[in-house]
Amino acid sequence: MNRFKYITSLLVLLMSLSFAVPVMAAPSDGTQNTENTGISEEPEGAVSDEASTAESSAYEAKAVRVINAVTETDSALTEAVEEEAAVAAEEAAAVEEQNTGLSGSKVVEFARQFLGRNYRYGGTSLTSGTDCSGFTMAVYRNFGISLPHSSRSQRSIGTAVGSLEEAQAGDLICYSGHVALYMGNGQIIHSMNSKKGVVISNARYNSILAIRRVL
Fold this sequence. Notes:
This protein is rod-shaped. Helix 1 runs antiparallel to helix 2 (49-99). The chain has 5 helices and 8 strands, in the order αααββααββββββ. It has helices at 2-19, 49-99, 104-112, 132-141, 151-154; strands at 124-125, 129-130, 159-160, 172-175, 178-184, 187-191, 198-202, 210-213. It starts with a helix and ends with a strand.
């Protein structure tokens, strides 16, 4: 918009200068005396009113064309920005709608569907197999929440929970080299190992290093 004002001001200045057409004064000496002949002559180099008007009109027409071009360009840019903003707002609204009323209980309910699925080292597919962090990551991914694929990294995300007694459904229960999803009532659901796959266990089956709240 500042560029538009600058260009407009420049064009106005050019237009004003175009009206200042110099007119030479008649020479005081050596000129033909036209009083007796009845002939009126313009001094050499003078510009007629018609030529000045035509030139001014040309400047005005050019100025209008440039201003229209600038206006159209600015309008196109504004429209593109508004369109991008609208798309971003729709995406944000979709995520918000998806997460409306999201609770740990819903997360656990979703995770329970995959009981008995295979453990697969490095896996992140709830259907074909996951490792421990891949399981918690894939479960939360379904709700639009991104977790790192590492039990060590998941140990430091979200907010800390002081003890298992304070834990809520959906919290991450972190062990040495392992992570699980807390279900409540002292139980966890996790992709345990290659022999057992996704199972429900007692949360105290091993020493708890940290509890992290994602929601």
